[in-house]
Amino acid sequence: MKHLLDIYSLSSETIKEILDLAENLKEVLERPIPKVPTLRGKLILLLFYEPSTRTKFSFERACKVLSADTLSFSTKGSSLEKGETILDTIKTLYALGVNLLIIRHSLSGTPHFLAKHLKIPVVNAGDGIHEHPTQALLDMLTVREKLGTLSDLKVAIVGDIKHSRVAHSDILGFQKMGAKVYVTGPAHLLPDPKEAEFFEVRKGCFKVCYKMEEALKEADVVIALRIQRERHGEPYIPTLQEYAENFGLSPKHLELIKEKALLMHPGPINWGVELSYEMEQYPFQVILDQVKNGVAIRMAILLKLLSGD
């Protein structure tokens, strides 16, 4: 494993190795002093071109626990504003001794481009509408932790599937680990037939549902997604209120899913839109567990790429 660019290129064996390592690393996070010297002397660059709270701080926390030093780069006030290319900027920082790059960018494929031109590992922290691999890995870790398995589950993903990099990584990852994935949302925000064919990595394990009830029925896991309005060139939904009435998850949907089914969301959440306020009290809502597992997953990724584990 030289980079972590997407879920698409990972085998089920590699995914399992990452999940197992992250599960073991959770013990470190529970210590009175959660810090180990494993990556002491390593310098990690965090380059976020888009806003981020959970992902960025989760990576920073993972770095600190592993004793790695970090550089957090801001595009504002940098040479990028003077016309310098992103590749030249990163090469300059590499010359300062950077050992690994974590990048989030609005342009799909940016991490892949950089990985071809750099001698250091590149981690994709979200690229455009393409993928968000560490989010899918932490989602899978959370499900396996709570349900004991990823195999033979029904995972329902609700929302803006077309523009969600989280959805794309989850669709691929859960299938690779033996689950069936059903997606639903407004028809124009669902994958078209060609996209659906690409996402079906295991025959018969991916389905686009135009009726929300079909996707939710007997689901073991339900993942709600935010409407990606910042990625819409034009309005795709009339109002958020209308979306909430038709596709927002509320207590009435609990009758469709399995008993003790997990409710998940990658954040940030628009309460009252994709999730009704009442769903915050749902006893099997594991949104903060996802956040906690994000640190362990990102620790595992850093260890695999920098220590050869």
TrEMBL record:
The keyword Transferase applies. One of its GO terms (cellular component) is cytosol. Carbamoyl phosphate binds at R54, T55, R104, H132, Q135, G267, P268. The keyword Hydrolase does not apply. Pathway: Pyrimidine metabolism; UMP biosynthesis via de novo pathway; (S)-dihydroorotate from bicarbonate: step 2/3. Residues 2-145 form the Aspartate/ornithine carbamoyltransferase carbamoyl-P binding domain. L-aspartate binds at K82, R165, R226. GO terms for biological process: 'de novo' pyrimidine nucleobase biosynthetic process; 'de novo' UMP biosynthetic process; amino acid metabolic process. Its EC number is 2.1.3.2. GO terms for molecular function: amino acid binding; aspartate carbamoyltransferase activity. It holds the Pfam family OTCace. SUPFAM superfamilies: Aspartate/ornithine carbamoyltransferase. Keywords: Pyrimidine biosynthesis, Transferase. Signal peptide: none annotated. It catalyses: carbamoyl phosphate + L-aspartate = N-carbamoyl-L-aspartate + phosphate + H(+). Residues 152-303 form the Aspartate/ornithine carbamoyltransferase Asp/Orn-binding domain. It is an enzyme of class 2 (transferase). Belongs to the aspartate/ornithine carbamoyltransferase superfamily. ATCase family. Heterododecamer (2C3:3R2) of six catalytic PyrB chains organized as two trimers (C3), and six regulatory PyrI chains organized as three dimers (R2). Catalyzes the condensation of carbamoyl phosphate and aspartate to form carbamoyl aspartate and inorganic phosphate, the committed step in the de novo pyrimidine nucleotide biosynthesis pathway. This is Aspartate carbamoyltransferase. The lineage of its organism: Bacteria, Pseudomonadati, Thermodesulfobacteriota, Thermodesulfobacteria, Thermodesulfobacteriales.
